[in-house]
Amino acid sequence: MNFTSFGATNVRTLLMTGAAAAAFSVPSIASAQGVGTDEAEAQIETPDDGDTFTGIEESRSANEIIVTATKRARTLQDTPVSVSVTTAETLERAEIRDLIDLQTVTPSLRVSQLQSSANTTFIIRGFGNGANNVGIEPSVGVFIDGVFRSRSAGQIGDIANVSRIEVLRGPQSTLFGKNASAGVISVITREPQFDFGGSVSATYGNFDQIVLKADVTGPITDTIAFSIDGNLNKRDGYVDVVNLGEKINERDRYGVRGQLLFEPSDTLKLRAIGDYSKIDELCCFAGNVLAGPTTAAIIGAGGQIQPNDLFSDRTFLNVLPENEIESYGGSLQGDLELGALTLTSITAYRELRSFNAQDVDFTSANIVNEFRDQAIDTFTQEVRVTSDFDGPLNFLLGGFYFDESVVQNSGLDTGPQGRAFFNLLAGGALPFAEAGLGLPAGSIFAPGPLTRELFTLDNTSYSIFGTVDFELTDRLTLTAGFNYTDDSKDFTLSQQSSDPLANINLVDAVIVGQIAQILQIPPSAVTPAVIGGFQQANPAAFGQIAAAATNPALNPLLGLQALQFQPPFVDLPNSVEPGETNDDDFSYTLRASYEVNNNVNVYATYATGFKASSVNLSRDSRPSNADFIAGPGGSTILAPSSPIRDAGLAVPNLSSGSRFAGPEDSEVYEVGLKASFPGFGFNLAIFDQTIEGFQSFAFTGTGFALTNAGEQSTRGVEFDTTISPSDALLFTFATTYLDATFDSFPGSAVGDLTGETPAGIPEWTISTSAQYTQELGNSGSALIGRVDYYHESNTQILDGVPGFGATATETANEVARRIARNYRREVNQVNASLTLALDNGFELSAWARNLLDERYITTIFPSVAQAGSISGYPNAPRTYGVTGRFRF
């Protein structure tokens, strides 16, 4: 079946196409277009991120945004990097509450949320990873008020009191201490003000959504100001768990933040921030996309499933999915002006606690359940000096230190119906296998713990970075920047695997049994020394035994290998594997920017970037091929010589894979044009970006494969424009074209992908909006209407879907890639709002997100322990409501 776009009709498509033609823009760049030189200079002299907008005034002055993407306050027009800015007004008008919704106004950004609230991946220009494994660093760095948030669980809470969100595209090695190989999302909140003020808002929407927000700011003394803000977001789920009579995919989160601003003089400013947020949600729904041959065994074991019906928003589970996330911490930023120099220090400490428990077979049969309990403590310190000389030379020089500790306790549990399900898959052979292998009756897949794991990671890194700007002429500026990063990781992994079948290699069991029978000794007496002696003394007999043991026609036990999901684990560190990585890198940026005239700027950039090694903190962490090679059928006895085998560390059914993925090295060639005229402006960027060693992380049905792609490249064009034909009317349009390729990826989880287009990267992405402000006489009040449209072109969802086996003409990997080509996604989303803004500070808005209720698959994956079945995550249905807001 070919999935493209769901719920859309031809009429709707025509309507949306018409809306796109009428609405030329993206609100994220309704910003610094059309700013004259004198006006821009005045703004740069007095940038103020803390000002609250008045709704009507913000709409009229959309050309006056200051950004700090280059760590200096500039207008967007004067910033020679590819950056988009989403304003506070856009966030409110479009009902964007967290970073997940930000993609609908930023075409080069894509956000994916998977099996839990904590598993969110940010992707820029087709590059991104980091979800579902706490050991993987994200390729897209997220900073909130200058503080690096290292894991997605600490990034996706609702953000209140935002001044703007800047999305920087491409490697940002010379501006941010924690190097991000694909890009940066920088969230800037409003700082405390010395004028008393604030706002309150309340929202009620479908699914009984209630959102409350409040903030207040003002002076404590002449030199100290404060601000406090808080938010609550609750909503019923929209997915019915039919057999439990419950709903999932709900919202239940809140956060509080307090700030103090201390300005004892004109040259010193201190800003202290403390925040706490909590998420306690039943999330996330994964439905059945394709019911395969194992579905009969689910039903036979007493389970139920909603087959082939992802968008019914109905499911069957044996337990509700729990997500509990606590994120809290504090930061202190100091800015000291020393004449033409400014010294900035940002010190931060954060703690993140995340617990997730889930039915991972996604049926009402109690087969397998998983839990993860994670604790992450992070300390960061950044110090930088920036200059503001009158002469042609200015610079930035900084240092960054990062120290993080990660601990994960996790495990799988076999449910009471697990044995019945797996016995049906085995054709009723489990009792016979237990008898033949000498195992207690009922021991294979007995209810209880299947695995228990403890993983730890200690990561320390430091970097020195900087840029130098040299104004060769009044119009031509040359920039050079550098970053040196040193990164060290020490990690430990241990696991207990309880299933007795997984602890026996079915080839070795036959070899041991045959040797014991020939030598007339008990199998327990057949030690490695005995096996070696027998092989040396009887090579022909040993060869016959090995041949029979590896022949499915002669060894019927081999049919059970597919049920050996969680074999024993080689703990780390050990005498062969030290459990550490040490990386260092020197990256740099070269740029030339030229002011053609007061309205047009051009720039050309060459930049490199780096991301350190990531660690596979999961039960699927396995030794590399250089350390171990398994024998036929996973045999240890027949395995060739390798460091782990020779050291006596090999365990039954050990296979090779990866403990970690090596560093990513990125480079980008980019040219850009920024033009600003009265009532009209646009930005254009053309780029060629490549990442060598891209860290690929793919789910294979029973585990995750972490590996480095040889090289992935993306060539593309980014264009955005703002058109304001009158003070009342504002159009925005932004589009991104991406031509992505795996230049080299022979070792992917689904075979050689070299030359293929990476899945999940749309060729075209479009984001547009139209906003009209109708003043109501001379009252100072207005009616503001806004429509947004977001589009992703039809694209393949996944590179391959394992679990379908091989055919007479195709390998299993070839089948996996062929099956995946049947599943595609196209996105067409319309959002709208209508706001009555009164002169007294009160606003009333009616809004809708996904107004036309377009449904599509966000991603698919091979169903857990259900070969031939496919599961997937759908997007959210239409949501709508009303919001009342009062500013004072």
From TrEMBL:
Organism superkingdom: Bacteria
Q: How does it sit in the membrane?
A: Multi-pass membrane protein
**Which residues does the UniProt record annotate as the domain TonB-dependent receptor plug?**
76-184
Among Gene3D superfamilies, the record links this protein to: TonB-dependent receptor, beta-barrel domain (2.40.170.20)
Q: Which GO terms describe its biological process?
A: iron ion transport
Q: Where are the transmembrane segments?
A: none
Q: Name one GO cellular component term.
A: cell outer membrane
Please state where this protein is localized: Cell outer membrane
Residue intervals of the TonB-dependent receptor-like beta-barrel domain? 306-851
Query: In which residues does the motif TonB C-terminal box occur?
Result: 871-888
Give the signal peptide, or none: 1-32
InterPro entries for this protein: Beta-barrel_TonB (IPR000531), Beta-barrel_TonB_sf (IPR036942), Plug_dom (IPR012910), TonB-dep_rcpt-like (IPR039426), TonB_rcpt_CS (IPR010917)
The identity of this protein, by name, is Ferrioxamine receptor
Organism of origin? Alteripontixanthobacter maritimus
Upper lineage is: Bacteria, Pseudomonadati, Pseudomonadota, Alphaproteobacteria, Sphingomonadales
